[in-house]
Design brief:
mainly beta
């Protein structure tokens, strides 16, 4: 496969999504990826997904923007879903709950009832639509899985979710999510990418 320029997927400013996931000194989160499916992607990437780069930056350090960024090389149908359409995100602060089996006993009975009445086998309270920082990962296709840091063996936390959506033009897997997990102790330990 011929090399391709990476394409921008999302850029978020800290002021719009404050949280403990920001490394010290960073105030811009950028995610770029190759716009092609990689069937045997190198770990820690998921198979049949784009190869991804996560970039933490300081807005003050960005002094030059390319007027004509290089065009990506597509090796598959343009409509496949890894060539996002330009759009803006509207930040909304929500509470994202854990997988139903992991709800603490003292959790409000009304929420437990909502889960049971809506879909006792699903995780409807963690399936907040859209792209998101943090929260709980969806497990609507498999049982919950624990990913571990390859540097310190800590359990990885969900950092960011990229959801399939017709507005953005992104289609991940079978209309699912691409999740980025990070070490809770040091994002410098790297990431784990999962398609669900």
């Amino acid at each position: 496969m011929a090399p391709s320029a990476m394409v921008p997927v999302v850029q978020v400013f800290k002021r719009d999504a404050p949280g403990d996931w920001w490394p010290e000194g960073a105030d811009v989160f950028q995610l770029v990826w190759c716009p092609n499916s990689h069937w045997d992607a190198p770990a820690p990437h998921a198979d049949v997904s784009p190869v991804i780069e996560v970039r933490w930056r300081r807005a003050a350090d960005v002094t030059r923007v390319l007027a004509q960024p290089p065009k990506p090389v597509r090796h598959e149908d343009d409509g496949y879903g890894f060539s996002p359409r330009p759009c803006t995100l509207t930040p909304v602060h929500l509470t994202d709950f854990p997988y139903p089996d992991e709800l603490p006993e003292e959790f409000p009975p009304a929420v437990r009832r909502l889960v049971e009445e809506t879909d006792p086998e699903g995780d409807v309270i963690t399936r907040v639509a859209g792209n998101k920082f943090g929260g709980g990962p969806t497990w609507h296709l498999t049982e919950p899985t624990e990913f571990r840091c390859r540097s310190c063996d800590a359990v990885l936390a969900l950092l960011f979710t990229i959801a399939s959506h017709s507005t953005t033009g992104i289609t991940v897997g079978r209309w699912g999510d691409l999740r980025i997990f990070a070490c809770p102790h040091d994002v410098g330990h790297g990431y784990w990418f999962d398609v669900h």
